[in-house]
């Protein structure tokens, strides 16, 4: 059994009479990417601050990398790295100096510190910029430096608080690549985001934070199956084949103009096989078969009481 890098139980936090977290449970296996998803103000940063010992919870327990958050806060801090909205980058000094400062903070011997800094600057494509003040860096470079600085201490668990908010599309994709590479060495990534696409792209498991609680949790695929709207679409070029299929597939909705049939389906292998088997045995050939799964936007709106998801199924052709 894989052990948990983060295990939290009943986390609560209020500011004044505003309840931000109202009993949050989390279980994040080691070496995975976990995404806490929620709109602005949902409490994502509060959760990160609690789990990284920056803020004390009003209730609940958590273990991070095997250490109790309350009783072993020092050990927790030694095992984690945090980056995000509260960037640690000092703009007045160069990227390299920022890295060496981090190495000092982690009490690395001088030569070891230089080696680690050089290696990370190289890995994050910051060699050319290393001797320039961080104030001259673009948003993407600053985020890369921030993550590089976090890695100096060799953390086992990394908290990334909205790592791509405000980045241009190219920098966002670079950041996604970096995040994927972080877990290859067994590191665990706890990522907060307000972008469904980002969670879908990166996370092994996703938890949707709504009204201070986890409204749903699972892989992107599992979450998508929670909402209606998934279907298989069969398109025909031969009107006779279309009519025969429409007559035989009772529950299908047909569109005579485009010779297309829509069959409600979760898109699972089992359901696809039964549709294909049926077509084969009836000797009917469809021009095209596409699977349409609801995307995370549909899930999010369905869970948080927004627009009905089933009205506008998104196209996800596989
Ligand atoms: P998110 O990261 O999801 O945008 P936050 O955790 O930053 O959400 O904030 C959740 C809620 O808690 C917000 O309504 C915010 O105003 C409130 N909040 C956060 N920190 C404090 C604080 N130190 N004092 C008072 N209210 C706070």
From TrEMBL:
Keyword list, A-Z: Antibiotic resistance, ATP-binding, Cell membrane, Membrane, Nucleotide-binding, Translocase, Transport
Broadest EC class assigned to this enzyme: translocase
Protein's cellular compartments: Cell membrane
Pfam families per the UniProt record, alphabetical: ABC_tran
Family: Belongs to the ABC transporter superfamily. Drug exporter-1 (DrugE1) (TC 3.A.1.105) family.
Primary subcellular site in the record, as a coarse category: membrane
Organism: Streptomyces cyaneogriseus subsp. noncyanogenus
Example of a GO biological process term: response to antibiotic
ABC transporter domain segment(s): 6-236
Cellular component GO terms, alphabetical: plasma membrane
One GO MF term attached to the UniProt entry: ABC-type xenobiotic transporter activity
Topological category with respect to the lipid bilayer: Peripheral membrane protein
Identification of the protein by name: ABC-type xenobiotic transporter
InterPro entries per UniProt: AAA+_ATPase (IPR003593), ABC_transporter-like_ATP-bd (IPR003439), ABC_transporter-like_CS (IPR017871), ABC_transporter_ATP-binding (IPR050763), DrrA (IPR005894), P-loop_NTPase (IPR027417)
The EC number(s) this enzyme carries: 7.6.2.2
